[in-house]
Amino acid sequence: MGLKSSQYYAIMREYEKKRLKSHDIQTNRYNEVYEKIPEFKSIDESISILSVQYGKKLLNGDDHAIASLKEELSILRNSKQNLLLSAGFPADYLEPVYECSDCKDTGYIGNKKCHCFRKAIIHLLYEQSNIKELPYDAGFENFRLDFYSPSYYDKKTGRSARAIMEDTLKICHQFIETFGTEFRNLFFYGDVGVGKTYLSTCIARELMEQEFSVLYFSAPQLFNSLARTAFNKRDVDAGNMNEYIFSCDLLIIDDLGSEYTNGFIASQFFTCINERLLHRKSTIISTNLSLETLADLYTERSFSRITSSYTLLKIIGDDIRIKKKLEHREDNSCYVEQKES
After folding, report:
1. Whose CB among 98, 228, 245, 289 lies 3.0–4.6 Å from 257's, allowing a Cys bridge?
2. How many whole angstroms separate alpha carbon 290 and alpha carbon 272?
3. What is the pLDDT of residues 23-37, one digit of tens each?
4. Closest by alpha carbon to 164, among 199, 138, 139?
């Protein structure tokens, strides 16, 4: 876990922009007050002159200089406050304007990161993850176990869709709870629409909230990105993305098998999963393919890496997208009936 240098500096640049914006707002407000209350500017100038005069006295050994300065400054500040209020300005009109008053837009309170810095990290991770393309409601709090029927059985194991998903959810939560301390990988496979992508997104969002870096790709997106570097070594952006693909805390490869597969793709797939295994970086893969088809398409080497280093989770059930559409129609029908009655 932890930000790359480029990510950290990107966040700090945003804080610098906030401070510059605050400075501009404060400067404009001072100019506005000076224009409306010329006497206010005169008092500010007097304060500057006094500070210099008493500074000289202090250097010359006048022990009473600080006390005298504080007294005179207090009088002048009270005068400024009265002028500001009498002209209809709020008492705090000339105070610095911060987006976060706790850290004063520095990102730190003492040596500790401010709560706003953590939000900035999470926002950046979301921006760089591609996760925004996925279902907006994907989260374990919205996960519906009732979509998995207790009477829908797997022919090989005899277990129900509900029982399988209950166990799968436990494994997913264990994956999240031990992430960063235990090295694990997940492989979701099953028919279309049984919730593989949804589960991956739930996990991704939980981990990004913990400030882990997550990168999501559909299989075609991933292989297009890897191919850019393979065929154009001078493409710096593609090279940087490849580095991130191999080094991010969690890589999600969704819908493996939906891409056009050939020898080059199979080789790139092996390189990707092998590099991440060597560096102990977790990966989640989801596919509609059977394990037998996976071995045929992506070579025995890739199949061996997956079966030996990933937790294989078969998900069965009806197409949830169809169930949701039927529910939506039923809800609309009920609404129409109530309206008519």
Report:
1. 289
2. 20
3. 999 999 999 999 999
4. 199
